[in-house]
UniProtKB/TrEMBL annotation:
Name of the protein in its database record: UDP-glucuronosyltransferase
Species per Swiss-Prot/TrEMBL record: Culex pipiens (House mosquito)
Any matching Pfam family: UDPGT
InterPro entries: UDP-glycosyltransferase, UDP_glucos_trans, UDP_glycos_trans_CS
Catalytic activity: glucuronate acceptor + UDP-alpha-D-glucuronate = acceptor beta-D-glucuronoside + UDP + H(+)
Similarity remark: Belongs to the UDP-glycosyltransferase family.
Compartment(s) where it occurs, according to its Swiss-Prot or TrEMBL record: Membrane
GO cellular component, one term: membrane
Keywords, in A-Z order: Glycosyltransferase, Transferase
EC number(s) on file: 2.4.1.17
Membrane topology: Single-pass membrane protein
A molecular function (GO) term: glucuronosyltransferase activity
Amino acid sequence: YLDNSKHGVIYFSMGSMLKGCNFPEEKRNAFISAFAQLKENVLWKYENTSLPNKPKNVLIKQWMPQNDILAHPNVKLFITHGGLLGSTESLYHGKPMVGVPIYGDQRLNMARARNAGYGTSVEYEHLTQQSISDAIRTVLANPS
């Protein structure tokens, strides 16, 4: 999947504590709609075996080797909650981030990413198809 994605791959994981399958339908559909508009493929760490209305360019898996995925040259962007481990792995592999911080150190980690120019964030309360699409386009258009 990674090797055969001619437009690149966006990796989406909210870590082990936040589960995409538990997102309210409105938030989940915002991601689905945003991803459907992309030319890139999307790898989504999603905890169920099926995702209603899953676009053709989205592959879901219940678990993925995050560090290995971020190391792959076809990965163009990491959508994350902004936790310390994932942020560190993303930075190590030179992958820009779109963060959706929820709690703890996540807001601070994403503020550092914004200030250093390797990421941006969208507040969970303001997640819409438009805000997600805008954040993805902004980061992909300005790789650091």
